[in-house]
Amino acid sequence: MRNYSKYQTGFVNQGTVYCNAASSATAIPSLDKADFLKLQNGRATSRQTDVDMQSLSTGSNMKEKTLGLMLSDSRGVAVAGIEGEPVTLTEPVTEAIAAAFAAWLLDKKKVDASRRLKISIGHDSRISAHMLQEAVSRGITGAGLDVVQYGLASTPAMFNSTLTEHEAFLCPVDGVIMITASHLPYNRNGFKFFTYAGGLGKPYIKDILERAADIYSNFRAEGYSDKKASASVRKVDYMAVYTSDLVKAVRKAAGSRTACYSLIVIIFYEEKPLEGFHIIVDAGNGAGGFFAAKVLEPLSAITSGSQFLKPDGMFPNHTPNPEDKAAMKAITQAVLDNKADLGVIFDTDVDRSAAVDSTGCEFNQNRLNCFNVCHCARGRTTIVTDSATSDGLTSFIEKKLGGKHHRFKRGYKNVIDEAICLNSVGEESHLAIETSGHGALKENHWLDDGAYLMASGRNDGSKVLTDLVEGLEEPAVAVEPRLKINQSHPDLKGGPFRDYGEAVLKHLENSIASDPELQKAPVNYEGVRVSGFRGWFLLRPSLHDPVLPLNIEISSKPKFSKYFFVFKSKADLQTSQNNQLIDHNLISRGNGFGCKLVQFYRYEKR
């Protein structure tokens, strides 16, 4: 038993925190605030990209630089099994993070002692899910808050538990912890945090992890107690509520008819809006298997041929990622083999999705953005997307639909927050979407819910999705290499990789200004975006990895080599040494030209 002195006032007479993860004899390794902060968006993994754990623990300047790179959730290695990746998300660390979230929530809610707060916990199919769920529960109850365990759930459903009013299902809850690491490998896991206002952003996550570091220090100093707090842990099948609400939302979106009886107006929603549609679901062995039986079938869709619906945290069939080539190939083949009208694929926690139509045409990335703009009938307002979307999408939104394309930064939280900001100043926006497959609607509380996006729209009777996006200009060549910075190179002189990346961008920007054939984008929030030769490229720094992601799209294959040489001559990627500062081997996509790209990355002595 320990006194939780620093945050005791926020615990509303619940200043004692208990940790029950192990006996008092259990050794707890030393970690400090910087180590905890590296968990933000998964930086505390073994294959470190900028600094190792020991240097981060001892260098205060490096700590400050690292804090500037943090993102909006926390991830780490939860189970052993991959060489070179030791476990960083241990049970004591997890318990400390959960207790810190409870402390943070109490500070924000400022409730009196008469009301006990509730936090719901859910998880995806990862093999570490149950272990972490129990550790999270201990951390929360040790802080004196009640726990509602939902078990296997989707991230969007977890957020909805803060909004749903259903006493039998202990809703609404005051806060949410979703245990997931999206599409990352089986050994990873992490946490997403929500309140009724939405997902927590970077400053709040930083605050929680700093609190967790203090709590963890108390664990080490004072040991463990087997005594448990009086708070309760209950289990609820909230997914039954979520799927029922989702079915109702689809019926409502599909249309209605109104009848009037004795001055009482009754609205009848279409009960079977998907009748006759054959839709295949690929859940990738994640948490999305419910979508076939619990959502599509009640709407009268045919779901035979659906695959990988059973949760399996080893992900034996393909990576549960709508951006993964093998995953998209799997759902495409299933659609064609079963002669289905549509295929839907989700990531592990069902906040991202993609689709395949009856012809085998894939709808992910830019085409998915276009599909959702049409599908959700919000094209005449401002559509917020991330920075890597194509010029063709801009033309489609603004010329065909009469809307406005607002291209912002990468990161689903960034585009959602920007859409909310635009609405707050009077610019109407209903859709925020990222090429990774995250998409959020204003009507759905700005939640990035892949299941809602796939289920809520209609195609006006057509079963071929390409009908929707007719007129979208698509490039002949689209590549996305990631230029890896060699941090051991002497040119870095021990400095952070981001400084070198920014220097490259500045040089590129200055070079473009003197070239009449190339035009820098007049409005751009991230990196350097350049148009010319009927194409464009975007070079930007990664938020948390030592790489410079590069997007290139060009209208014809013969122009591609010329365009890339133009880029190479403008970006100062050569070094003063024979050694390579940019690792030319890291190329993520090629569209047939990936092999040619490699030779362009062979930087020689100036």
From TrEMBL:
Keywords: Carbohydrate metabolism, Glucose metabolism, Phosphoprotein. It comes from the Eukaryota. Residues 81-212, 275-360, 380-454 form the Alpha-D-phosphohexomutase alpha/beta/alpha domain. It is an enzyme of class 5 (isomerase). Its cofactor is Mg(2+). Monomer. This is phosphoglucomutase (alpha-D-glucose-1,6-bisphosphate-dependent).
